Amino acid sequence: PDELLLLILVHAAFAGGSRLFSSVCRRWQRLCQDRNVKEALWEARWELYAEGKREPRLFEYLETDGPSIVSLCAGVKGTMYCGTELGSIEVRSDKDGSLLQTFIGHDEERPHWVTALAVSLDGTLYSGSEDTTIRVWSLKTGTCIRTLQGHTNTVNTLAVNEASMFSGSEDGTILVWECTSGNLVHTLTDLGRVYSLALGTHDQLYSGSEDGVIRVWSATDFTQIRTLAAGQLSGVWTLAVSKDGTLFSGTGDGVIHVWSGSDDVLLRTLEGHFSGITFLSFAPSGTLVSASDDFTIRVWREGGRRSMVLDLPFFSSWGPVHAFTRTGYLWVPDKQIAIF
């Protein structure tokens, strides 16, 4: 039965041998290539990780031939988008990391790092850069639809909902753009360097800045609702919101704060990293995963009461973890990609 074959594939994947099954017979090949089966495999594996029945391990290690990857976000139809140091955006398979397409844009006069990426529900790709601009891309043609200008320094972070796209910058502002027209509709100022943005489940926009304050905004009328003190000495580097609306913030001192999504009350702090938290995300099972400047990825269990470090091979050329995607998680230091 397919259910039994799927169970075998789950355990084979931990041993690194799932690909071998595709050459056994046509039925195995069909299963191994089926997108729904692949999604089910990731779900099953991360459920076992969350329950502590299996330890995450390195599934595949790739080294890219092109420029260094400096930003990353999950794409559509089995893809991920990688911003590079040369101003290009690489479209790669989230299955094996292979290069599918390259978008060229943030390279006028000289190459500029692509520092932020976001994808809207309708499939539009937004990229922010140290050239101070935001580019809007058609994923069908790979061409730049428009260029948004308004910031005066590097664009660090992007967030997008159905109506608006929000951009945070080193210039201390958050700009609000209308998705359909690309018009600038609102400016939030005097924030210090804005490192991170995240959208809540109740029309909130969260922003994290160098002053260690999380600001809670209305994502509809753009008024400030409240402020949360999170990392006064080190800044709020990254934000993430879970499906139930819980807010997680990572600071430059390596601490993760957990906030109630309904009233933004501090619930607990998670400690384990030894350097700044560079990225927060969630496994398909809802398990929190954090990346850090201490060269590690941690998987948090039991509501954050326990954590484990992914078993990563260490090479001196590998650097801090930049980001990872929803399916499998990809570690992207320098030109290297690791799939779990």
Describe the structure concisely.
The protein is mainly beta.
Q: What string gives the helices and strands in order? A: HHHEEEEEEEEEEEEEEEEEEEEEEEEEEE
Distance between the termini: 27 Å
Rg over CA atoms, rounded to whole Å, is 20 Å
The low-confidence parts are 14-18, 313-320
Mean pLDDT: 79
Oligomer: single chain
Please tally the β strands and state the result. 27
Strand order across the largest sheet: 2-3-4-5
The assigned structural class equals mainly beta
Major beta sheet, specifics?
A: 4 strands, antiparallel
Q: What is the helix tally?
A: 3
Beta content = 35-45%
Q: How much helix is in the residues?
A: 10-25%
Overall 3D form: globular
Protein architecture, described:
With 340 residues, the protein is mainly beta. It is built from three helices and 27 strands. It has helices at residues 2-14, 26-33, 35-51, and strands spanning 60-63, 69-74, 79-84, 88-93, 99-104, 114-119, 125-129, 134-137, 144-148, 155-160, 164-169, 174-178, 184-188, 194-199, 204-209, 213-218, 224-229, 236-241, 247-251, 256-259, 266-270, 277-282, 288-292, 297-301, 306-309, 330-331, 336-339. Strands 2-3-4-5 form a four-stranded antiparallel β-sheet, with no helix packed on it. A hairpin with a 4-residue loop joins strand 24 and strand 25 (306-309). Helix 1 packs across helix 3. It is globular, with a radius of gyration of 20 Å. Residues 14-18 and 313-320 have low confidence and may be disordered.
